[in-house]
Amino acid sequence: MERVILHLDMDAFFAAVEQRDRPELRGKPVIVGAPGPRGVVSTCSYEARAFGVRSAMPSVTAQRLCPQGIWVRPNFPAYEAASHTIFERVARRVPIVEQVSIDEAYGDMTGAVRDLAAAADVTRALKEEIRAATSLTASAGLSYCRFLAKIASDLRKPDGLVVVAQEDVATLIWPLPARRIPGVGPKLEGRLLELGIRTIGDLARCNAQRLENRLGASTAHYLLERARGWDETPIEPHGERKQVSEERTYLPDLADPAEIDREMFARCEGIAAELRRREIRARTVTLKVRDARFNTVTRSHTVDDPVDLATEIFEVARTLYRERTTIRNIRLLGVGVKDFVHARDVPPTLFPDERRERAHAAARAADLLREKYGADAVRPARLVKRAPKKTDDDP
Ligand code: TTP
Ligand code: MG
């Protein structure tokens, strides 16, 4: 069943609250933040944006671009009060809400509405309620997946409502620059430009193998999935995440057993790091595989001693794959864990194994390095891959 996902983001939020509370600021270029050499812009009104002022810009730059800007110190209690009212209204109309910042949330309306058109009616009413309750405007995006809803909400700011159905991806999304895909920063954008890829459409049409050779398999797959309008990331209210999982889609299918192991281990690594960060361990490991004909198999296994090491999760996932599935050409590979226990609730006697303790200490140390120096700082030997073979179409 196709999902119905909402993304809602308030317009010029802090500045809009200021203009609401101080009518003399309406219609003026309002900049929230502290002027002067050490200040940065928190946000600004749309009138100030016309001068090129942006969030996170050094205040001196903003002062140069917009000398007539009216500077306002942030008043967080007012923003928090507005935020509370807004998301309380959202929660009344949307069954699953994941608030991601003070002015932004995702909602999952699947099952509550018939389709995107019906969701648009609900969202229009919701925007009206927010305006009535707070005198503030929101922009909303509706789509069948998370990242498209996010892009959609940004397309007609302020006070916008944009629906992106599957058939709209080519017309509404493909013309946008690739940096609109979450995770594409200036560095990755630069590397894409070197490959002649400027728009999301360029990405969708590019040669997958060539992209993979240049950016590595996981980045390439991530970008291709998004460019083709595919994102299965769930909407999850905070504190209620009942499982941690990672999955990837492969084009062409994964068939080489060593490659499958490597990919599976990489997923386990990500999951294990997240468990350790949250100081939880999991009792159940789940494996999901899909072939090119969309046959999907999910298998799980519950272990006696809760796990939070990649090697432990991998051991279970690989056994599930080898012994309990028959799919050998993999289009989608996912690993997940659930049934959490707090690490501190795990009786130490369950782990008399000194080797495990040492492995755990090493993993924690690696986590810290990664937090400090980035995801690529530490790579287990198993993941180190020989340079990819050149393909014919590679210049
Ligand atoms: P955003 O939603 O990113 O920005 P916005 O609501 O001001 O404008 P837009 O219409 O484009 O959505 O952020 C929400 C609030 O968070 C913003 O009003 C101020 C604050 N904020 C900062 O303090 N610093 C920042 O760098 C950013 C991006 C936001
Ligand atoms: Mg906003």
Can you put this structure into words, describing what you see?
It is a single chain. The chain is α+β, with helices and mostly antiparallel strands. Helix content is 41%, strand content 22%. The protein contains 14 helices and twelve strands. The strands form three sheets. The protein has a five-stranded mixed beta sheet with strand order 5-6-1-7-8. It has a four-stranded antiparallel beta sheet with strand order 9-12-10-11. It has a three-stranded mixed beta sheet with strand order 3-2-4. Helix 10 crosses helix 11. It is globular and about 70 Å long. The two termini are 42 Å apart. Mean pLDDT is 89; it is low at 384-395. Bound molecules: thymidine-5'-triphosphate and magnesium ion. The site of thymidine-5'-triphosphate (TTP) has 14 residues, from strand 1, helix 1 and strand 3. Thymidine-5'-triphosphate (TTP) is lined by residues 9-14, 42-43, 55-56, 102-104, 157.
Number of strands: 12
Poorly predicted runs? 384-395
Sheet with most strands: strand arrangement: 5-6-1-7-8
Percentage of helical residues?
40-55%
Largest sheet: 5 strands, mixed
Q: Ions, cofactors, ligands: which are bound?
A: thymidine-5'-triphosphate, magnesium ion
Summarize model confidence as the mean pLDDT.
89
| Series of H and E elements | EHEEHHEHEEHEHEHHHHHEHEEHEH
State the shape. Answer: globular
Distance between the termini: 42 Å
Please, how many helices?
Answer: 14
Structural class: alpha+beta
Q: What percentage of the residues does DSSP assign to strands (E)?
A: 15-25%
